[in-house]
Amino acid sequence: MKNLGRPKNDGKKVAIVGAGPAGIACAAFLARVKVFDRAKEPGGTVRYVIPDFRISGEAIARDVELAKTYGAQFEGGVEIRSLKELQSQGYEAVVLAIGARKGMPIGVETEKEYNAVEFLEAAKADPDSLELGKHVAVIGAGNTAMDAARMAKRIPGVEDVTVVYRRTKRYMPADEQELKEAMEEGILFRELLAPKVQKDGLLTCRRMVLGEPDASGRQRPVETDEEVTLPADAIIASLGERVDGAAYERFGVAVSDRGLPVLDAATMETSQAGVYAIGDGAAGVADIVRAIRDARIAANAILKAEGPAPRTYACDLEAAAEKKGILIHSKEASSEKERCLECSHICENCVDVCPNRANVAVQVPGCKAPVIVHVDYMCNECGNCNSFCPYSSAPYQNKFTLFANEKDFDNSGNQGFAVLDHDAMRVKVRLAGQTAVHELKSGGCSLHEGLKQTILEIEENYRYLYI
Fold first, then answer.
1. Domain check: are 59 and 112 in the same one?
2. How many domains in the chain?
3. Which of 241, 266, 288 is the last residue of a domain?
4. Which of 10, 223, 225, 381 is 20 to 30 A from residue 37's alpha carbon, by CA?
5. Is 229 in a helix, a strand, or coil?
6. Are strands 202-213 and 219-231 parallel, antiparallel or unpaired?
C-alpha cells in the first residue's frame, strides 16, 4: 500500500456520511474525500454487528487503510444531521451511505424480545452483559437470523437456540452456506410456525400450512387452529431491517412510501442535486457486493460531473460467450479483463463442469443470455455443479428440470416438466411446489410466457435431450 501514492485534492470537495462498506468503498474510489460517521471507528455494520466468525476485524482494517492510502480521511464520533451543515464547510457533493438498521418487532406479546441487529451489536461489544436464559428462539430465517442464532449459542448460559419460521426450510431466505453452518453448530429449526405469545419461558405458536404461491413465487403460509409450544426464555426478532426515511428527509431528499430515497439508478443521485445515496439505505438490505457496486456508480457520476467521464466497461454478451471454456494463464494475458469470464452476465459453470452433460444452455428466442436446463436422467448427482457454482446454488436441484417421463417427474421434488403428449404439447409442470398440466399449443395456457417459450424451444430444437 505504501507505493500506491496519494492523489491531489484538486477536484470537487466531497463528503461521505457513513463509514460502512458502501462508504469505505466510495471513499477508495473517489480518494479525495472525507468520511463522517457517528461511531468512533469506521466499519459500520461489518465492524459493530456482523460476528467475527463471519468477517474478521483485520479484513475491515485493511479496507479502511486502503481508502486512507488513496487519500480519504475518516472522522468518527460525528453525527451529520443536515445538508446545510456540510455545505457550510464547503462540500459540493454528498454521498449518503447511512445503511438500514431499523428493525421490526414480531408484533405479538413478549416478555423479553431483542431486535436482531441490536442484539448482535450488544453481543459483539460485551457478550457477558446479556442474560438470555437457557432457551432462545430466533424469529425469521434470513442471513441476519443465522448470525443471531449462532451468536446466541455462544452467549454464556444458553443451552439451545431454535430458529422459528412460518414457511418450510426450502423457502428460507438465508444463503445455503449460512443455513449449513448454523445446522453444523447445532442450531435447531422449527418450520411452519408463527409466534403468538411468549410468556413464562414458553413461546406459543400457530401451526401453518402452505397455500397458493404469492407474488414472490413462494407458497403463502396459512394459519391453522393448532398451537405448538416451545421453550423460549428470550426472543430475537429478525424480520428484516428497514431504512430510516426520516434520516433522508433531514437532508432534503424525497423518499418513497417505503422510506427509500427516490434516486436515479444510473447515477445514484437523489432528488437533491449533488446528493447521492448508496448501500443498504439506497434500496434495502442486500450484500457487500451490491454496496460496492452502488459506490462505484456514485463515484463515476461524481467524477463525470467534475470533468471527463471515467472509463467504464460495458459487457459484450457475444464476446463473453466466446470466453466460455477457454482458460488463459495470468502470464499470457495483458490484463485481467481478458481472463474474466463475466459470470454476472453469462454464467455456464454448471454446464462446463458437468461430466455427464446434464446441464444444458438453451438459447431461447428473445432472451439475451441462455437458459440453463437440468436433464434429470443424465444426472448422477456427483455434486460438481454445486461445488463450482459462484452463486452458492445446487444446479442439479435448483435449475428448471427436464424429466424423461411422468414417473421420473413424480419421484422428484425439482421444479421442472415432463412431456405427456408431444403432438398436443401437453406437459406436466411443477413450480413453487404446485403441479399442473398445461397444453402449450392451446390458447388458454396459463403458464408464464418465458417458461412456455423455453419448453417449446427444447421441443423444437433440443429433441436429442429426450430418451
1. no
2. 3
3. 241
4. 10
5. strand
6. antiparallel
Contacts of residue 343, Cβ cutoff 8 Å, sequence gap at least 6:
349, 390
Q: Is the pLDDT of residue 128 over 70?
A: yes
Q: What would the pLDDT profile of 197-248 be if each residue is shown by its tens digit?
A: 999 999 999 999 998 877 666 788 999 999 999 999 999 999 988 888 888 9
The kind and range of the H/E element at 306 are helix 288-306
The residues with which 403 forms a beta bridge, in sequence order, are 418
With vertex at residue 280, the alpha carbon angle to CA 275 and CA 281, rounded to the nearest 5 degrees, is 45
Integer Cα distance of 230 and 20 in angstroms: 37
**Residue 202 · residue 147 · CB < 8 Å:** no
**pLDDT tens digit string along 178-204?**
999 999 999 999 999 999 999 999 999
At 242 the pLDDT is: 80
Give the CA distances from residue 111 to residues 121, 143, 232, 235, 237, in Å, rounded to whole numbers and listed in that order.
21, 25, 10, 8, 13
| CA distance linking residue 278 with residue 99, whole number of Å | 8
Q: Does some domain include residue 1?
A: no
Count Cβ atoms below 10 Å from residue 448 Cβ, excluding itself. 11
Burial of 312: CB neighbours in 10 Å, binned 0-12, 13-18, 19+:
exposed
The torsion defined by the Cα of 44, 270, 34 and 98, in degrees rounded to 10, comes to -10
Return d(Cα 412, Cα 74) in angstroms, integer. 55
Query: Is the separation of the CB atoms in 380 and 356 below 8 Å?
Result: yes
Report the candidate in 192, 163, 190, 193 with the shortest Cα–Cα distance to residue 178: 163
Cα of 372 vs its chain's centroid, Å: 21
Cell of 147: 448470525
Question: Contact 207/181 with Cβ under 8 angstroms?
Answer: no
CB 15 within 8 A of CB 91: yes
Residue type, 219: Q
**Residues whose CB is less than 8 angstroms from the CB of residue 305 and which lie 6 or more positions away in sequence, other chains included:** 12, 93
- The whole domain housing 262 covers 14-100+243-306
Q: What is the DSSP string of 237-267?
A: E-S-EE--HHHHHTTT--B-TTSPBPEETTT
Pairing assessment for the beta strands 73-75 and 33-36 based on DSSP bridges: parallel
Q: Which amino acid is at 381?
A: E
Last residue of a domain, one of 241, 257, 276: 241
Cα separation, 320 vs 338, in Å, equals 10
